[in-house]
Fold this sequence. Notes:
Blueprint (H helix, E strand, L loop, with lengths): L1 H15 L6 E5 L12 H4 L4 E2 H4 L15 E4 L12 E5 L2 H4 L2 E10 L3 E6 L5 E7 L10 E6 L6 E6 L10 E10 L3 H19 L1
Antiparallel strand pairs: 1-10, 2-3, 3-10, 4-9, 5-8, 5-10, 6-7, 6-9
Amino acid sequence: MKSLIRVSLAVCVLSMGASSMAQVFVETFPDPLGSYWGRWLYQNSNINSYYHATGDPNPDQRGNNPQGLWIADTQGLNSGVGGPTAIINFNPGFGAGLASLSFGLECFVESRVDIYDMSSNVLATAVFSGGDFGFGHEDIITAFSTNGIGGFSITATDGQSQIEGNTSVDNFRAEAVPEPATIAVLGLGAAALLRRRRK
């Protein structure tokens, strides 16, 4: 009975410690801009640079934006832009492990930003008035989830203004937590250690 209590306590401690085992992902867009292609955000979503999506082969082209990324939702050279909505989806295997997401924006037309979970339920919504050319990316949206994070969308509230090329993003922060199965495996390991110690 004592060993069962010890195992239960070990599993509880491991579960409570899951947040301390969380992996934090941060993304900013310093020079050279194209280096972000090799990092987590580009590798795990369909995010791209507006200039690359419109046919500029220079991966470091950032226009008049000193620190953020003019956003596009299609990857690849000359992959196309347009329309009043940009939708960034995370790859399912990556998004399923995310517990939080936050980032800053500069929306130059009034826009609604939605972050949604893996089942497309909206986790957070914010409307930003637009028109700020300071590139501080001080319009921040944050969401937390127990069902992963599927991605986010940015939509012009007038239903017609183009988002891509008019919206800059920066200062991404995402947190992934271990899956319950991982915690269970750690708990089984703790149980095995207790059994071995008892023998």
